[in-house]
Each structure stands twice: as structure tokens, then as C-alpha cells.
Design brief:
- There is one protein chain.
- By secondary structure, this protein is α+β, with helices and mostly antiparallel strands.
- It folds into three domains: about 80 residues, no CATH class; about 40 residues, no CATH class; about 120 residues, no CATH class.
- It is built from six helices and 14 strands.
- The chain has a four-stranded antiparallel beta sheet with strand order 3-8-14-10, with no helix packed on it.
- A hairpin with a 2-residue loop joins strand 12 and strand 13.
- Helix 2 packs antiparallel against helix 3 and helix 3 runs antiparallel to helix 4.
Length: about 325
């Protein structure tokens, strides 16, 4: 009733699936064996295949041909049985039966070859998928709590995660660096059981490209100079810089660009003349951290840590 399909239990899903099989088997028997009118099922099969071919990655080219061959064969046999019942005749001998089936197979084979080899017209109607996607994205199909099927990508609202999602392989940016990097945009610190929120919003401070306040490391951590170059391709909803751990400064951007940096949330917003303006490309100078695991394990006294990252849910069992 609440349309929360993802929360259905495996037992109830199995029950619904068995009910579906029961209904389908009964209808197949009724229309094929009792009524001997399989046309409606064959029609629905073609509709089903065309919908899959249009709205999913499934290629129905072969399936359409297979459905045509089987469908016409079933209709031919059903019509033969209908004639025999109408004339009150018994099933003829195999030799007589082949005189009926042979032309049927010949017609099916000829029609299939002609249909496959004949030139095809271009689609008369435009592809409906982009229109449906754009309409759905404007009506809750995407980012935000309670948004049915979500789309992979950057979004600021992570209060409700989980459920179905749509793949998106769009290239957002290219990065060039001497070693592997882990790219960041922002940080959230509190898990509610359904998604992520922030315990503190922090404040933005205007800089000319300095990012050192984002990377407070212990004296135990060894830092090595490094760099990374970023070029945006299709940032989409992304209006903040991507950076990596150890980032110190942003260079290779236009002269009038400044940056609003939030040390609590980790956000870096590029600003030109008071408005957000994402650069096409930029370079990050960084101090790549190298964590000495053995030295860190030898530390006996716990240093000061921000309670922001130590919070636990109420009622969490002690063993956890």
C-alpha cells in the first residue's frame, strides 16, 4: 500500500512470484488449449519485447524473429485444431497432417527471410527515452529523500539512500597524477540509519587558492610533494572543486577566481565576481600523506580526536 517495493521480504516476493506463475499458466492453458485463440498472448509478447528494446539495454532483434516464428506456428496449429473441432473430425494421420504443416512452415520461413532481409525504414517517432528521463528527473526521479528510483551521480541530499538506481557512465572529469588518488567533494559525518547528514555546517572563508586548512595531519605522517591536474568534461550538477587528500593549493585558473573553503564540510567553491564558476581545468599542488602503520600502532596514549567522528547510535550493543 505504501509502494515501498524495496522493503518487501524475500518470502513475500516468492509468494507473489508463485501467484504470478499460477495465473500465467492458467491463462496460457485457457487461451491456447480451451479457447484456441493465442493471438492476444502473441501480441502481448511483441509489445513486451518492443518495450524492453526501447527502454532498456536489451537488444530484441533476434527475440522478435524468434517470437514471430513461434507465434505464427502456434496460430497455425491452433487454427487447425479449431477446424477439426468445428467439423467434428479427428486428428488426421501424419501424412495428411504434413500436407497442412508443410505449407505453414514454408510460409513462416519465407516470411522470416523476407522480413529479415528487406530494407528497414527509419523510426517514424522520436526516441521517447530522453523525454521520459528529463520529465522524471523533474518530478522526483533522482536526488533527494523519497525519490523513487535514483540516478548515480553527485547530489547534495543524502538523507535517504538505498533503493533502485539508474546507472550513469557519463565522464565527469579527467585527472592526471603520478599515482592513484582518492577524490573528494565534501564530507558528511553522521549516519542516521537511512542516510548521511552533517552535525555541523561550518563557515566558508574566502581564499585565493590555499587549501591547507582542509588537511590537518599528525606529525607522525610523512608528507611528499605531489601534484594532480583536473579537466572537467561534463560536471553536471557538480559546482564544487574535486581535490585529493593533502591538497595545499589550487593553481592554473583564471586570475579573478577566488575560493570559498569550508574546513568543516570540506567544500571548495570557486567564485568569480561573486558568482560560482567552475573552471574548465586546474592543477592541485599537494603533500601526499604516507601513513606509517607500525609507528601509529606503537602510540600508547590516544591523542585528541574530534567527537564529530566518534559518535555512535543510541542503544548500540556493547559488543559492537
Amino acid at each position: 500500500m505504501t509502494a515501498d517495493w524495496v522493503s518487501l521480504t524475500p518470502f513475500f516476493r516468492t509468494l507473489l512470484f508463485l501467484i504470478l506463475l499460477w495465473m500465467l499458466s492458467y491463462l496460457l492453458y485457457y487461451w491456447f488449449a480451451v479457447r484456441k485463440k493465442p493471438f492476444s498472448f502473441i501480441l502481448f509478447t511483441f509489445v513486451y519485447l518492443t518495450v524492453l528494446d526501447t527502454f532498456t539495454t536489451f537488444d530484441a532483434s533476434t527475440a522478435i524473429i524468434r517470437a514471430f516464428v513461434i507465434g505464427v506456428g502456434i496460430m497455425g496449429v491452433a487454427y487447425l485444431q479449431h477446424l477439426l473441432e468445428k467439423e467434428n473430425m479427428r486428428m488426421p494421420a501424419m501424412k495428411t497432417l504434413m500436407m497442412w504443416i508443410a505449407p505453414l512452415l514454408l510460409v513462416i520461413g519465407f516470411s522470416t527471410v523476407v522480413g529479415y532481409a528487406a530494407p528497414k525504414f527509419d523510426p517514424i517517432w522520436p526516441d521517447p527515452v530522453p523525454f521520459i528521463q528529463s520529465t522524471a528527473e523533474g518530478s522526483g526521479f533522482g536526488d533527494g529523500p523519497g525519490a523513487g528510483v535514483q540516478k548515480i551521480g553527485y547530489g547534495e541530499n543524502d538523507e535517504r539512500l538505498g533503493g533502485g538506481f539508474v546507472q550513469d557512465d557519463t565522464t565527469v572529469f579527467y585527472a592526471e597524477a603520478p599515482g592513484t588518488q582518492y577524490w573528494k567533494v565534501e564530507t558528511k559525518d553522521t549516519y542516521t540509519g537511512k542516510g548521511w547528514v552533517r552535525s555541523q555546517e561550518g563557515q566558508f572563508e574566502r581564499t585565493e587558492g590555499t587549501l591547507q586548512e582542509l588537511q590537518p595531519y599528525s606529525d607522525l605522517v610523512e608528507l611528499n610533494e605531489d601534484y594532480a591536474s583536473i579537466q572537467f568534461e561534463d560536471p553536471g550538477l557538480l559546482d564544487k572543486l574535486v581535490y585529493t587528500y593533502g591538497a595545499e593549493a589550487v593553481t592554473y585558473v583564471q586570475d579573478s577566481m577566488n575560493f570559498d573553503v569550508n574546513a568543516i564540510t570540506g567544500e571548495v567553491i570557486p567564485v568569480v565576481n561573486g558568482e560560482t564558476a567552475l573552471p574548465d581545468a586546474y592543477r592541485i599542488d599537494l603533500q601526499r600523506p604516507s601513513f606509517p602503520v607500525e609507528d601509529m600502532r606503537s602510540v600508547t596514549e590516544a591523542g585528541e580526536a574530534d567527537d564529530q567522528y566518534l559518535q555512535l547510535p543510541e542503544g548500540l550493543p556493547d559488543e559492537l
